Amino acid sequence: MAIYDFSLVSMYALSGVDSAMCQRANIMSARGYEVALIFPTPPEPRDLTLYKGLGISYDKMLGVHMSFTDVDDFTPKVSTESLFFELENSLKCTEKQVLENHILVKANHMSAALIFDDTKSYVHAVEYYKNSDLIQKDYYADVKYMSVFYGREEEQGNSRQVVKRRIFYNRDHSIAFIQNYY
After folding, report:
1. Which end of the chain has the smaller Cβ count within 10 Å, N or C?
2. Is residue 24 a contact partner of residue 36, using CB atoms and an 8 Å limit?
């Protein structure tokens, strides 16, 4: 058995380490070993896309947080089109831009970016901005499984954006647990 700590690389720029870990996982899987990638912190959409592209299926990517919820894999199944129309209506969209890996929806001081998978059919996450500051990010698999809320902190005259709270959800949209940052 081999256990890889993906938090060492997933928080930083992508490197050959990612490819090497996935290659080892693929070799072990081909030899009949059951392989799962375990993320100590929830992975970002770019990580899911990268590891899927390197041959690791979504159902073999696990997060420690999943043991507290009934969401058991990261397979994206929420339709980009349906979530786009929902956001367009709720934000009263005045502008939209379709870009390579996301759709940007704007309305007054608010905007939202739908980050989709490599097929562009399903959503990995939605980022919400107010006056260009990220205020919330919702993560999706077959349901919304986590919301991250951001705020600003002042430190020695510098303002920086920080995570204030993470809320993890069950499939029925009930709250599984809340993680506050102080």
Report:
1. C
2. no
